[in-house]
């Protein structure tokens, strides 16, 4: 009977169940656009120091300004927040809860609006770089040891496909691109890594090496070309030759720089590539490096990125490391395994 007497009925008002005399009205959600975040900074100081004068000095305000801020805070929270006692200001229960919440909330806001310090050794991430494999042969042997030492938790993923590189940079599918490009369109940045000249690769016992190395001799040879797969001008190493009046209008298309040297070493084909690439692959296969018997425009390798990552400290650091690795690759000393080069007009 007692349980039934105290049980709420369908007609009993909710206020009787909760013990309130009148039901609490539902307050609309606060519009954050109307909140002055500086008031929260003042509240944090007030709750920490529990003294208006000391709190004002902490945030660089006058005592009257801090008093006005406290009055506005009381109106905003509909609570006294801090009340006077015989020992000074003391927080209300609402003020105590806010004292616990404010440091983490304001700390997160400070993290958002201030630049964080970048520690490469703690960088846990992945960076995707689009570069043709012939550039990877030059750059990665210098870059990867640097990154392993300075940012061991950073993973580098290389993508040999340069098709649509500008679009993929813009959409964030790749972080950087390494290759050839003339003028960067608006919204993109470029940094020249190094310039190179072109060289020809032929098998060491190629018949042409025993003859005069002239433009006419060069023009009669069968040429191989590495496909760039690019629509943006990246990675094209055959542009200079394409403008020549060669009888071979249909060179053999080779998919990548790994396939091409093996093919050259077993045939009478000639492959024209950047000089630094030629010397690296000739050190591993029985190939001769020969200067072309004609002047070709220099081959400039550039680093390309989109403006959406331009000011990112992680990205800026990585670009600097790539440039340093490229400089080391250019200035690196000659190794005992490097091939002997044949200059124009020389014969073996």
Which short descriptors sum up this protein?
348 residues, alpha/beta, five-stranded mixed β-sheet, 13 strands, 39% helix, 19% strand, disordered C terminus
Briefly say what this structure is:
The chain is an alpha/beta fold. 39% of the residues lie in helices and 19% in strands.
What does this structure look like?
This protein is an alpha/beta fold. The protein is 39% helix and 19% strand. It contains 13 helices and 13 strands. The strands form three sheets. Strands 9-8-10-7-11-13 form a six-stranded mixed β-sheet. Strands 4-3-5-12-6 form a five-stranded mixed β-sheet.
Topology, element by element:
Blueprint: H1 2-6, H2 14-18, H3 37-49, H4 52-59, H5 63-77, E1 82-85, E2 88-91, H6 93-113, E3 125-130, H7 133-150, E4 154-159, H8 165-171, E5 176-179, E6 188-196, E7 198-203, H9 215-220, E8 223-226, H10 239-242, E9 252-254, H11 259-266, E10 270-274, H12 275-282, E11 287-290, E12 299-306, H13 313-331, E13 341-342
The structure class reads alpha/beta
Strand content: 15-25%
Order of the strands making up the biggest sheet: 9-8-10-7-11-13
- Cα radius of gyration in angstroms: 35 Å
